[in-house]
Write a structure and sequence with these properties.
Shape: elongated
Structural class: mainly alpha
Order of helices and strands: HHHHHHHHHHHHHEHE
Radius of gyration: 37 Å
Largest sheet: 2 strands, antiparallel
Number of helices: 14
Helix content: 55-70%
């Protein structure tokens, strides 16, 4: 129902006003559903519900039931084998919905593509059946107003042409639904079995087949656009540039989505999970896929925080925006690795290597028992985190305490005082100032030593 409503909305925006006369326009000024609900008779409401039910039943039969029956008759593809057992240590659906789907929606825009395909079909069928004037209208007259209806020409055998258009629409919907049910899952099953030698859930097969089809279509469009825009002898140069840019992006993607997340997850595993799940008599076990998935999630959270508008502008956001602005063909790999990857990679490598070298390299020289060395490895990375956190806390306190002390002094001795005769220039010293008598106000004692200043309490406040 949602997809059908979206389709009707697209057609209402693109087609001539009056083509979809049998559908009520919810954006019309005279459309008031609550008023109609009270004023229109119950019989008319029942007829509308009946017509809507019949229409949606026909759509379900044509788009879902009939393709399923034909698939079962011709190809042994259905029913889909859907299960949610884990293949590796990490659930794949977590990675798919957190990484693959968001990136795809940012670059593919499926709604825009579906809308273009639908309008392309209507233009082709209108040209084939001589219904272009009926569907899209003619050029309005020069003296026509904005509220005048768009003119159109009525061809011969108009009723048959419109009927053939409707039948062709249902047939095209049936064919598209059949292809979507059969092609992606078939390609996905064959590719996954050829690559891994095992069967997975058909949800993953459909995803793999769909992404492969999308990649082939995108590549074909890019090649055709390049060949139309340039000469044939320039195509080789364009292809070489594309291969070079693809290699750069592959290397950057491997570092950014492979190495960095794995090191993040490995350090988190050694510092947090190993002390919890490993006893003193066990050796710690590292799960590669598990650590990489954890690192991916933390990297995504970090990326969302850095790119959020609530966070002040920082160098990482500037680097990411510069990479996006340069585009696919103009990636500066050296600057991207230096400014984006290395600032995260090098500290993580240091946090992993320093405790490991100290535990595995120095402790055996002291000839400690194996149980002690195992305990040191179990809690060494956590101790490193605690030491770094303590260092930063102490550093913050050391930098904050002088400012706090000065703020307290200013609040005690300067607030509530004003300079009566201070104009921003020092008064000339004629003779040595006599020693100031003892005053109960410390600020007055300090100001008495400055020539030309007269400090007095502000009326209504008590001098401390």
């Amino acid at each position: 129902m949602f997809l059908f409503a979206c389709l009707v909305g697209w057609l209402r925006e693109e087609l001539r006003e009056g083509v979809l006369w049998f559908f009520r326009n919810p954006n019309a000024d005279d459309f008031d559903p609550f008023k109609e609900m009270l004023e229109v008779s119950s019989g008319r409401h029942a007829r509308r519900i009946l017509v809507s039910s019949v229409m949606y039943a026909m759509i379900v039969i044509i788009i879902i039931w009939a393709p399923i029956q034909l698939c079962n008759l011709l190809l042994p593809l259905l029913p889909y084998d859907v299960w949610f057992r884990e293949i590796y240590e990490v659930p794949l659906d977590l990675l798919v919905f957190h990484i693959v789907v968001p990136v795809t929606l940012d670059y593919v825009h499926p709604t825009r593509g579906i809308r273009k395909c639908v309008m392309w079909w209507f233009r082709q069928m209108g040209r084939l059946l001589d219904l272009t004037s009926y569907l899209f209208g003619e050029q309005p007259l020069p003296n026509a107003g904005p509220m005048d209806p768009v003119p159109w020409n009525r061809p011969a055998n108009f009723g048959w042409r419109v009927t053939l258009l409707v039948v062709s629409g249902f047939a095209s919907a049936f064919l598209v639904s059949l292809l979507l049910m059969a092609v992606p899952v078939s390609i996905g099953r064959a590719l996954v079995f050829a690559a891994f030698g095992m069967s997975v859930s058909d949800l993953y097969n459909v995803a793999v087949g769909s992404y492969l089809i999308w990649a082939c279509v995108a590549l074909a469009r890019f090649v055709s656009t390049s060949l139309r825009a340039t000469e044939l002898r320039q195509a080789a140069t364009t292809a070489a540039s594309c291969l070079l840019a693809g290699s750069k992006w592959a290397l950057l993607t491997t570092l950014w989505l492979g190495v960095v997340p794995f090191l993040f997850g490995l350090f988190f595993d050694l510092a947090v999970l190993v002390p919890i799940r490993t006893s003193s008599s066990e050796s710690p076990v590292v799960f590669v896929y598990h650590d990489w998935a954890i690192g991916i999630l933390y990297l995504k959270v970090w990326y969302r925080i850095v790119m959020s508008e609530a966070v002040p502008v920082n160098k990482f956001r500037l680097v990411v925006e510069r990479i996006k602005r340069d585009g696919f063909m103009n990636l500066n790999l050296k600057e991207a690795v230096r400014d984006l990857v290395l600032p995260l990679l090098m500290p993580t490598v240091a946090l992993l290597s320093a405790p490991y070298v100290a535990i595995r390299g120095l402790l055996p020289l002291v000839d400690l028992p194996l149980r002690t060395q195992a305990a040191a490895f179990r809690f060494g990375f956590l101790a490193t985190v605690l030491l770094l956190a303590s260092y930063h806390v102490v550093k913050f306190v050391v930098n904050w305490y002088p400012r706090f002390r000065q703020a307290v002094i200013d609040d005690l001795y300067l607030i509530g005082k004003k300079l009566n005769n201070f104009d921003g220039k020092a008064s000339p010293v004629v003779a040595a100032a006599p020693a100031a008598p003892f005053a109960a106000d410390p600020a007055a004692q300090d100001a008495a030593a400055v020539p030309g200043l007269d400090v007095a309490p502000v009326p209504g406040e008590v001098a401390i």
